[in-house]
Amino acid sequence: MSKRSGFYPCPAVDTAGSNVGSQAGGLLLTEAGRAVGLDRALSAALAPWRGPNAVHDPAKIVLDLAVMMLALGGDCLADVALLRAEPGVHGLVASDPTVSRTIDRLAGDPARALAAIGAARAAARAAAWRLAGEHAPDHHIHASAPLVIDVDATLVTAHSDKEGAAPTFKRGFGHHPLWAFVDHGPDGTGEPLSVLLRPGNAGSNTAADHITVLRDALRQLSGHRRGTRPGRKILIRADAAGCTHDLLDWIVGQRLSYSVGFTLPEGITGELAKIPQRDWQPAYDADGEPRPGAWVLEVTGLLDLRRWPRGMRVIVRRERPHPGAQLRPTDADGHRLTAFATNTAPGGPGRQLADLELRHRRRARAEDRIRVAKDTGLRNLPLHDLDQNRIWCALVALVALAVELTGWAQLLALAEHPARRWEPKRLRLRMFSLAGRLARTGRRTVLHLPRHPPWAPLLLQAIATLRALAVPG
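The structure corresponding to this sequence follows.
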């Protein structure tokens, strides 16, 4: 009679292994930083914060935190211990007290520290987009095919009394950061450009906050020059919180394009009911094909827009609600009505009403970008002081150091693979979590990845691609 062994093997277990590196897939992120010169740019930018006898470069500490947040899913400073345990893969990692003191020093002069980190990010982004060539988001942009910057806010719950936290409009307690992302289109995950950490009771439609975030975002774009206006090749996309007089006046003053949600005035539904059905044009679905049960119409002539910037157009989308959706007071005749405003002129390819409405609706990708940020350190602001958490948010935006590192790795090494669109959770499961064995032969150190995981060859190819692109030095 034989004893059943169960479904899984039952090997003996000990801790006697040596030269084994866990999370070896995180090498993809460090190689991405090396390829775009982020390590050197950040080291030069943070040199004023390095003590004369310091062993650890503040830039290395910041990069370690970014890798920890993305590759390992950490959400507090102490989680960097997982990198410290693998010196063969991640090098010399600072102790917890050293990491904490570095954050304190950066938070001592937050405006200067954030400006330094931002300058390093901008230099690395310019290198990444230059190396990406035709896959770069700014490749051949023009007024009809602009570079899109999405602005959106989110709520971050504070589970303790943190500086700057306040009650939120959803009856919670925490912060209300405002983000700006550059859209990579349907083929990519996008990049965070700037973030403004605000109290939980900050207004959704505060024009001054939007302008601050957009100014910081424009400084992150390659080719940006102080004192120059970007022009119509940059499109600012936002929900109705961005439809304020002050914000749109500023956008128009910068000669930018815009596409923002618009709140229809009372009484407009009666006017729309008088318009014949033949005047409504079919709307498009996500694939650019006519969508049954959805139509678009320009209503600029029905509205008094004298107080708004010249050239504003207002376009309404009418559709049958999805099954189970609740109608709102502004809905008419059983149809859901939404509207947006834009200064894109009619005529030319991609400028039909349905094209413009589809372009605006793709603003929903900003929700995906925020989900990625929350999965990369934003969900928990682990520090008490507001300035410390501002530095933490700068790291998140570095993906600010963590989301950007993966975005650049995907942009440069995975552009032709579906992994270009993978979010951090999937990347951790399939690539970053791979272990490796360190072997030393002669004067070389080799990291042997396991043979059996299905995505090991993809990781190996991606690392080789990044090393071939690496900036010399």
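The chain has a mean pLDDT of 84.
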